[in-house]
Specification:
Structural class: mainly alpha
Strand content: 5-15%
Helix content: 55-70%
Number of domains: 3
Number of strands: 5
Strand order of the largest sheet: 3-4-5
Distance between the termini: 44 Å
Radius of gyration: 28 Å
Number of helices: 12
């Protein structure tokens, strides 16, 4: 079952996003394991998914290690149940879907909250351990430098008093070298943290195109915002796109370079079934009102005519609804 055939498919149902609040590879893995395969085998929900890890990894377009971690996360949260079997001394894992009643959903939310807090604590602990290690290494280097300086000073005093000045200059030089390394080490650590965060966010985003177009500088900006708020921004954007007919996801590079801004906590509110986006610039606030939307739509149509020719003038758009126009513009790579 390691090969995906042309007739294979999965179904992502509305409640998986709405009630279970799944997204990204976790959503695909859940649909693949819990519904598309398990419920497809029989109607009594007693069947187990016995496919290989390679098969799951091919569906998710990721490594087997990543696929294994995703399945474990779903099992830890309570979406699925892992069944371990030992055959000829080798451990195999099968999976079954849990019945999604109200009590199970409540337990899943508690498990997810606890897991996220644990991951946050682990990241904080890892960061603190890194700082402590740097401090220990720095202290060790300083002690060695002081001991070396004192040894040279003692020899210099016994042999010739004038060498005291040279020893003092040597101590200052070593101290300056240590100080000069601090900013560079801090910069490297920051870059590593930014790359790690970006990989986590990229795994959550549905349309994985243009990854190489996100610069280190932009990744550093994302690091300043933090994982939790950006995770909410992705979830809000996915929910918005899914709620509008004919609307397509932006490329990952477009979203992470600028598209996420409208969905940050400070710029996003929900009023019933309507989305309200507000951008703050100094003391000025612009609301995403209907008038603003019409203005942006007209500008986007003019841009289409400028980039693709006069055939996309006003006559081309006549008879279309605003959503249809926005959908066509999105296919042309023009955002409203």
């Amino acid at each position: 079952m390691a090969k995906i055939k042309n007739e294979h498919y999965i179904t992502i149902q509305e409640f998986m996003v709405r009630d279970l609040e799944l997204s990204g590879n976790e959503l695909i893995a859940y649909a693949l394991i819990a519904y598309a395969l398990i419920y497809g085998f029989s109607q009594n929900r007693e069947s187990k998914f016995e496919g290989s890890l390679s098969y799951v990894a091919k569906w998710l377009n990721c490594s087997k290690t990543t696929a294994f971690n995703i399945l474990n996360k779903l099992a830890d949260d309570g979406f699925i149940r892992k069944i371990e079997n030992v055959k000829n001394g080798i451990k195999f894992c099968d999976y079954k879907a849990n019945t999604m009643d109200e009590e199970t959903l409540k337990k899943i939310k508690e498990n997810k909250t606890q897991r996220k807090q644990k991951e946050k604590n682990e990241r904080r602990s890892k960061k603190l351990n890194g700082i402590q290690k740097n401090n220990v290494d720095r202290s060790k280097n300083l002690n060695e430098g002081v001991q070396k300086t004192l040894t040279h000073n003692t020899i210099d005093i016994l042999e010739h008093n004038t060498n005291n000045t040279l020893s003092g200059e040597r101590a200052v030089s070593e101290s300056e070298q240590l100080e000069s390394k601090k900013p560079e080490q801090k910069k490297q650590n920051r870059k590593s943290e930014a790359n790690t965060l970006f990989e986590q966010l990229w795994s959550l985003y549905p349309l994985k195109k243009g990854k190489g177009s996100v610069s280190d500088t932009q990744k550093a900006k994302l690091l300043e915002i933090g994982y939790e708020e950006l995770e909410r921004a992705i979830s809000r954007y996915v929910k918005y796109v899914d709620s509008v007919d004919y609307l397509h996801y932006k490329n990952g590079s477009t979203f992470f370079n600028s598209g996420y801004i409208d969905y940050l906590d400070a710029n996003y509110e929900e009023c019933g079934n309507k989305k309200l986006i507000t951008r703050h610039n100094g003391n000025t606030t612009k609301s995403n009102t209907e008038t603003d939307y019409k203005t942006r739509l007209e500008k986007a149509k003019k841009k289409a005519a400028e980039e693709f020719g006069e055939e996309f003038g006003q006559e081309y758009w006549e008879g279309m609804s605003d959503l249809e126009i926005e959908s066509h513009l999105a296919l042309m790579g023009i955002d409203v």
